[in-house]
Amino acid sequence: MTATRPSGLTTAQWLLALLGLNAMWVTDLFVMDGGLARDNLLTVLGRATGLYGALLLVFQLVLIARVPWLERGLGMDQLTRWHRWTGFWVLWLVLAHVVFITLGYAASDGSPLVDELGTLVFDTQDVLKATVATILLIGVAVTSARAARRRMRYETWHFVHLYAYLAVILGFLHQVTTGADFVGSPIATAYWWTLYGAALGAILLARLLLPLWRNGRHRLKVQTVVKESPNVVSVYITGRRLHELPARAGQFFLWRFLTRDRWWEAHPYSLSAMPDGRGLRITVKALGDGSSWLRTLRPGTRVFAEGPYGSFTSNPAHRKVLLIGGGVGITPVRALLEELRGDVVAVYRANQWEDTVLANELRYLAERTGARLHMVVGPPDNWLLSAAHLVSLVPDVRERNVFVCGPPGMTEAVMTTLRELAVPADQCHAERFAFAA
Predict the structure, then answer these.
(1) Any idea what the Cα angle at residue 409 is, between residues 84 and 328, rounded to 5°?
(2) Which of 209, 217, 259 is nearest to 240 (CA)?
(3) pLDDT tens across 171-205, in order?
(4) Which of 80, 186, 287, 355 is the most exposed place for a label (fewest CB within 10 A)?
């Protein structure tokens, strides 16, 4: 998602600057080691690709650590997108490291390539661990490709993805025992230990300790489940000291409902009402086994929530706002409509009237806040929400901050329309209503 631009450097610029600074340090430590003069060209390339691959791997860990500062500044969509593409670069650099090191050592020893590979894997300390780590990274990368993701349950993909942590540990053990850039310099050793320690510490803090502390503090549980339509339910959640929970309209949590057979599943659902300090609400469409069973939840069921996440939030500087929601992606838009004041226009896109979940609530909120509400209902059509259609609904669209949430296809089409209308990029905020990919 696109976050609201803060003054000065953006979060993305700070993060990229930090990555560039570390790349300079890695290069400096590599050159100071003297390997450029000592090793042949292939071995130098092998060491360099290994080091930059390790640096990007640490960067990946930071991206998925869900550090509040990064998450608020970039949003889960942006972090996930960066994490995905960085992962493929990590894989190519690791493979290049294996190829160049093997070729370089074979050239130095004058041995056949296959024999040199066997010697490295089975006779060199901890290289077998690195081999296993490489195989695990390949498996994670293959299952992360879009074609593979479409054929896998989210829970299966997530379980396979956890092996990436084992790959990180095995790769690090290989580096600290055999890597010349680890064992050859106390400064380099301290740097790499600090780098890995900081990344893993961020994951431990943000993804384990902070959620455990918040859930222990707030003790969330299901209050009631309300059937909104034949295939949509709203789950009302209560707890203690909810006024201290830093949740905002437009954000989402990763929810675990602690039933005997589903406690291990975590699903991202947006808040469908503005947090009021007394309770939270999510509204979910039964799209499969992962969500249809929610209608059977019993009051009192304990809930474990990670979050809040997302930068799909309003800003006091937003005086003129356009909200566009599609399908069940209307839920964060509905929450924003409840929070926003000023000149607000809301557009609800649905294929048929039966799909207009929470329509009565939207009408009530629009009347209460003075917002204008447009219901755009009809089958998928290039004309609906096209540039001409959107301008007819909202003539001053270029002057507005635009929030878009819906199925990926609809969201991308609307964002394309906004670009056609020359709406400034920093006024466009989008969130995909789909699992991170």
Answers:
(1) 100
(2) 217
(3) 887 877 776 666 667 888 889 889 999 999 999 99
(4) 186
Looking at the fold, whether 169 and 61 belong to one and the same domain comes out as: yes
* 183 and 104 in a common domain: yes
Question: What integer is the mean pLDDT of 344-358?
Answer: 90
Q: Which pTM was predicted?
A: 0.81
In CATH, what number is assigned to the domain containing residue 339? 3.40.50.80
Q: How far, in Å, CA of 343 to CA of 361, rounded?
A: 19
Q: Work out the burial of residue 239: count CB atoms within 10 Å of its CB; fewer than 13 is exposed, 13-18 middle, 19 or more buried.
A: buried
Does position 50 have pLDDT exceeding 60, yes or no? yes
User: Residue 308: is the preceding peptide bond cis (ω within 30°)?
Assistant: yes
Residue 64, CB half-sphere, CA atoms under 13 Å: how many? Answer: 20
The conformation of residue 353, written as its DSSP 8-state character, comes to: G
**pLDDT exceeds 80 at position 286:** no
Distance CA 410, CA 373 (A): 19
- Phi and psi based region of residue 134 (left: phi greater than 0; alpha: psi -120 to 50; beta: remaining): alpha
H helices, E strands: number in the chain:
17, 11
Note the pLDDT of residue 171.
82
DSSP annotation of 403 reads E
Same domain, 145 and 247: no
Residue 1 lies in a domain: no
Helices (H), 236-340: 289-292, 330-339
**Confidence (pLDDT) at 272:** 95
Q: Are the C-beta atoms of 199 and 65 separated by less than 8 Å?
A: yes
At position 249, the amino acid (one-letter code) is A
In angstroms, rounded to a whole number, what is the distance separating the alpha carbons of residues 33 and 382?
Answer: 60
Give the Å distances, CA to CA, from 380 to 6, 44, 323, 384, 409: 36, 55, 19, 8, 10
Which two three-digit tokens encode residue 285? 């469409």
Q: Once rounded to an integer, what is the mean pLDDT over residues 399-408? A: 92
All residues at 6 or more sequence positions from 36 whose CB lies less than 8 Å from its CB, including other chains: 30, 44
Give 277's strand partners. Answer: none
Report the Cα 19 to chain-centroid distance in Å: 19
Cβ(104)–Cβ(40) below 8 Å: yes
CA 197 to chain centre: 22
Closest CA to 55 of 97, 96, 26: 26
Q: Which stretch of 5-14, 138-147, 241-250, 420-429 has the lowest confidence by average pLDDT?
A: 5-14
